[in-house]
Amino acid sequence: MAHPLDQIRPARRQTLSDQVYDTLSEMLLSGALRPRDRLSLRDLAKRLEVSMMPVREAVSRLAASGALDVSPKRAVMVPLMTAAEFADLTMVRMVNEGHAARLAAARASKTERVGVVALAERFDEVLDRAYGSAAAVAANKDLHFALYRAAGSPALLDVITMLWLKAGPIINFDIGVAASVPDEAEVSRSRSHHSRAHHRMLCEALEARDGNAAAHAISEDIRVASDLIRARGAMDNEDNWRRIIP
Questions:
Q1: Contact criterion met (CB below 8 Å) for 132 and 171
Q2: What local confidence, expressed as pLDDT, does residue 235 receive?
Q3: H/E/C letters for each residue in 114-152?
């Protein structure tokens, strides 16, 4: 009788397609890409020094999850999102990311808690010097994912990552898009940004091991950001769909 271990195949190194997928995913997660941004597969392949095949494979995977749109002519674009789709995404994020925060409050090690606090401080520093930038969006992403990894649930982390592939470009509207207002007003908005308060609440909840307070802090961070995005983001009524656009 064959031994179960006989069915195991040697572990494979990360393929070129995986590397391209990771690169594009990070660009979506960190807000480097925005809705309506178009991607040249040929230029991407050239920059990454790979052939077109792994680029096409990676784009197909992201398109299957709804993170990218591929037209019949093979044009690739970061998709727009209807107001209804955005509201649904917000609700699902609040449930899953709030639960991850609750788990992290119970499971996070001291090192992980200290790491989240340090990233919250780093986010404040980036917001002070680079409000309205992709760097601010990336700093926010780093903080959130440090928290979600501390939840100790790989399955939940996978779900949240898929949600962020869709949400990342739109989070620009809350943190990463500089408004056309005087510098003094930008500084004021930066210092009073809602995420500062919610991140402080989160850090205090982690220190107190208060799962409900941690979940509330993250859920409110997501909800308030969603409200601000809807208020500040322009709306495109093309094809009778209300779409959130740059």
A1: no
A2: 45
A3: HHHHHHHHHHHHHHHHHCCCHHHHHHHHHHHHHHHHHCC
**Position of tokens 């003094």?**
184
Tokens standing for residue 1: 């009788």
Helices (H) and strands (E) in the chain, counts: 10, 6
The mean per-residue pLDDT over the stretch 124-136 comes to: 85
- Banded pLDDT at 184 (limits 50, 70, 90): low
Residues 6 or more apart whose CB falls under 8 angstroms from that of 243 comprise 80, 81, 82, 83, 235, 236, 237
Q: Tokens in use for 181?
A: 């207002």
What pLDDT, in 10s, does the model give residues 74-97? 788 999 888 889 999 999 999 999
Q: Is the pTM of this model over 0.85?
A: no
What are φ and ψ of residue 122, in 5° steps?
A: -65, -40
